[in-house]
Write the C-alpha cells for this entry.
Amino acid sequence: MDQDELEQLVVEARHAAFGAEHEAFVARVDDALAKVSGPGDRGSLLLARAMARQGDADSAPSASDAEAAAGLLRTAGRVDEAAYASAAAAGMHQRAGNIGRSVDLSVDAMVLLAEAGTTARDSVRAANALAVLFGQMTAFELAWVYSQQAVGTAFAVDTDPYTRTIVSYTLCYVAVEGNRAGVDLDLTPARRAVRYLREEAPSDDVAARLFADMHVELALLDDDGELPGIELDREARSAAGPRFAAWHRVVGATLANRRGQHELALDELEPAFPTLHGVGDEHRTIRAYRERSLALAAVGRPDEAYATAAMSAAHLHELLVEQVGRLGAQIGRRAELEVSRSALRRRADDLAREVSVDSVTGVGTRRWLELRLDETLKVDGAVAVLMLDLDHFKAVNDSFGHDTGDRVLAGVGRLLREATRSEDVVARFGGEEFVVVLPGLGAEGARAMAERIRLAISAEPWSDVVAELSVTTSVGAAVGRAVDVRDLIRRADAALYQAKRSGRNRTVMADEAELTS
C-alpha cells in the first residue's frame, strides 16, 4: 500500500465514523494494518479505525485503538497527530467509564497540543476532541476555550470541509449543553457555526446533514413558545451511527414536547435510552429522562412520570457522586504523578551525570567537553589549554592488568580535580589522555599549572596500588584567545607530541615546540 492510498483510506474511515454502516471501512483498515510496519503508518491506521467506530455504543475498542495510536505517533515524531489521538482516546475512555485513564490522556493531549502548535490540521482535531471531552466532564468553560480554538483555526487555515463540519457541531454541542447546565456561554459563535452547517457544509455528507439540526437545538434554547417551521432531518438520522442517532432522537423528543406532541416524544425517546446509557453521555441521558417525564405527565400517566423523574434524580445524584469521586481520584492521581515526576527528574539528573562525568576518572567526558568548548568560544579573554598523556600507560595495563590501569586513571582524575580551580574544565580526552582548559591564564600561569599537575602525578605513591608501580605524564600547553580554544587544543596536542619525543615526563609549551619544529 503506497502513501497516497493509505492517506485516502484514513480520510474515508474518519468520514465513516458517523454512519450506521462502517464495518466495511474497518475491514479495509484491518487489511491495511497487515501490510504496514512503520509506527507512523500503523498509528494513523489505528486512529482511523478508532474514529470509524466512535459512533458505536461500546467505546472501549475505540479507546484502546486511539491510545495505542497515540504511542505509535509519538514514537514517529508526529506530535500533532499524537495530540489528536490522545485527546480522542481520553474522550473514548471517559465514555467507557475509565476515568483515571481519561484524565491522564487528556493531560498528555494538552501538553502535546501546546508542543505541536495550533495550526496543523490534526492540532485542530485535537483541540476539538478536548472540547468534547471537557464538555462530557461538565467542564464547559474549558470545553468552550478549546472548541473556539478548534473552530477559529479550522476556518483560518486550509482545513477540509469535513473537519469544519465536526468542529462546528462540537461548538454547538458545548454551547447548548453548557447553557442547559446553567453556564452562560455566548451563543453568537454557535449561530455562526449552525449557519455553516446548514448553508456551506457538504449536503451529501451524513454528518453535515445530521449536525445541521443543531439549529433546532439553538431554537429550543431561544424560544419557549411554539416552533413552527422547525423540522429535523430524520432521513439523515437513519443513516447515522447509534450515538449520534440517539442524540437526534432526544432533540426530536424535546421538539415534540414543545409542540404538544407528547406521544411522539415518547416514541422518539424509547429507542434512545439504551444507547445513551451505553455511551456515557450523562447530560443527554438526564435530559432524556426529563423529556420522558414531561411527556408521561402530559398524556395522563402520572405514576410513570413520577417514576421517571425519580430515576432522573437518582441518575443525577449518581452523576454528582461520581464527579466528586472523580475529583478525589484525580487529586490522588496527580499526587502520584508528582511523585513519579520527581523520581523521573532524579533519574534524568542521574543520566545527565552519566553522560557528563567519566565513570572511571570522575572528570568530564569528551561529549561534555565539546559542550563546554562551545561555551568558551563565546567568551572574550585569554585561555590556556593543557594536553596530558600518561607515559607508557600500555605497559601498566600489560604488566598489572586493566583493573590496575583503571585505578591509576581514577587516581589521576582525582589529582587533576585537586590541582585545578572550580572554573577550570577538566575532561578525559580518550584512553589515557586528558584536557584541561584554564580560563584567564597566560603562558606563565599555564606552565605553572602544568608543572603542578605533572609533579603531583609523579609524586603520588602508586606503589600503594601495586608494588613497584610508578606513573608519570607528559604535558603540552598552549595559550591564546578563548575564541580560538579548539585551535589551542590542536597546538597543545602538537606540543604534547614534542614532550613525548623529548623524553617524556616534562612540559612543553606550544610556542617552544613550534620554534624547534
Summary: The first strand starts at residue 382 and ends at 390. Residues 302-356 form the longest helix (55 residues).
